[in-house]
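L-aspartate oxidase
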Amino acid sequence: MSTSSGRATTGDGSGTGIRLHAPAPGWALGADVVVVGSGVAGLTAALRCAAAGRRTVVVTKARLDDGSTRWAQGGIAAALGEGDTPEQHLDDTLVAGAGLCDEAAVRLLVTEGPGAVRRLIATGAEFDRDADTGEIELTREGGHHRRRIAHAGGDATGAEISRALVEAVHAAGIETVENALVLDLLQDAEGRTAGVTLHVMGEGQHDGVGAVHAPAVILATGGMGQVFSATTNPSVSTGDGVALALRAGAEVSDLEFVQFHPTVLFLGPDAEGQQPLVSEAVRGEGAYLVDADGVRFMTGQHELAELAPRDIVAKGIMRRMQEQGAHHMFLDARHFGRQMWEQRFPTILAACRSHGIDPVTEPIPVAPAAHYASGGVRTDLRGRTTVPGLYACGEVACTGVHGANRLASNSLLEGLVFAERIAEDIVADAPASAGPGVPVPFRGPLLPAEARLDIQRIMTQGAGVLRSADSLRAAADALDSLYAAALYDLEMHGKTAEPGVDTWEATNLLCVARVLVAAARRREETRGCHWREDHPDREDTTWRRHLVVRLSRTEKRALVVTETDTADFPSVDTPLRTPVHPILSQES
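Structure:
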C-alpha cells in the first residue's frame, strides 16, 4: 500500500515464516481484491469493490449462503426509530463493552450505521414492517434501552440478509470460489500482501490447492466458536482467518473476550457441536428467566433484569446453576401464546419442537454456550491490519467497537459499516501491485484430525465461562503438549499429519486456542465476558488496556503477548503502533 495510507507495519513486515503444510498450488486466478468469506461483511465489501471497478474474487469455505450471517436470528441494531439517536446507541455500546470500547470506533459505527442499513435495504434486504404504518418494526435486546433492532422473517434476519447479498453478488457477476478453505497469505519479498492460497473441496471449476493473486486481501472469515465443545457457531467457524493473520505476522487483540450467549437450547451436559440459539429478542419481547422452581433470579441483579448485557445474564445463569447444582435454567415465554410464537419466532419454535420442547406450553431449558469473539485481527478504522494490503472486517476483526463484551445485534452492523470503509480505502488508495509470493522457510506441524475434539474439551473445561489461574494453566499445558508432540514428530522424524481440511482446521483451532488462553491467563481481573473466579473484580487502574498477541518471528514455537499503553485504538488518521511492554513469551 502506498505511504499515503498512513499504515505502519511492525518489524520488517515479512511475516513469521510459518505456513501450513500443503501441496503447491496447482492453479491460479488473478484479481485486484480477494475477499475471504461470504457473510454480511465479506459480501458487502465485495459488492462495493466490484461496483468501483475493482476485479473482485470471493472465496468462501462452504456455499455463499452458508456462513455465520445466515444463523443470525435477532436482527441488526441501528438508531432508526422515533426518538432514538446515535448518541443513545453509543452509550449502550460503551456500557456493554465494559470500559474497553474505542469510543471513536463506536461513534463511527452508530453514526454511519443507519445509512448502511438503508443501503442494505436498497440492495434488496426486506425487513419486517408494521402492517399499518409501513415503518420498520423494531424490537429490544439485552443492553439496549430502546427498541432499535430491525428484524426479518420474525427471527430469520441473517437468512434474509444473506439471501439479498448473495443475489446481488450473482447479479453483479462477481467471480466466486465456493467450498474453499483459505490456507495462508501470500506475501512478496517486502512483506506486502500478494494473495492467498486455498484448497477447493469437491467438484467445480477448480479443485485441490490453488492461489488467488491480488494486492489486497479482505479477511471476513467469521468466528472461532468451534474451539469450544458447545457453540452456536456453524462447523466452519474454526478461526481460520485469525490463524492465517498470525502466521502472516499480523497482530490480534482481545481474544480473551469470548461472548457466551446466555440462552442456548440445552441439549444435555455432553452436547457438542453447533447448538440451537434462542435469540435475545425472545427476552426483548417479554420472556423471562426462571429456575426449576419458577423463580425469576435476574430481577434485582441489574436494572434491565433479563435484558442486561449478555455477560451479566450469562453470569447470573451460571451462578444460579452453581447454587442449585443444576445443568441449566429455563426461559419462560408461555404467555406469548401460539400465534405470537408462530409469527414472531417461527425458526426458534421449530428448533425447540424438533428437540421435543414446545415453548407454547412449557419453559425452554437454556444454558450459556460460546457465541461470539469480541476480539480478533487488530485493525484501524479503515479495516487495515499491520500487514500491508491485508484487511479484516466482521467477527474475524478487532476494530475496537465491541470492547470486552459485544452489545447485542451490533455485529451485523459492524460488518456492514467496516466493509464499506474497507472498500472506500481500497478504491481511494489502491494497494501497490505486489510481487509474487516468495517461498517461506518453515512449515509448522499439522495436527491429526482427532485433535479437534481434544482441543474443544480442553478449552471448554479450562477456558469456558468460568476461568481461574489453575484451569487456564491446565489448559495451556494440555494445548502446549499437543503442539509439542506434533512438532517433535516433524523435527525429529520428518512426519506430520496428512494435509487435508480436517488437519488444517485442527491446526488452526490449536493456534487460536493457545492465543486465547495466553491472553486469558495474563488478564487477572473479571471484565465483560472474561470471568476469572480467582480475580472476581474489575480493575480499571491496572487492566483498562488491551492485550495484543503475535507469533514470534525468531522462535517458531512462541506466542508473544504485549499490552498497549492505553485502552485506545488508533484513530482513522493514526497508524497502528507497535505494541509496547512485552509481558509474556509462552513457549510450548
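Confidence is low (pLDDT under 50) at residues 1-13, 565-588.
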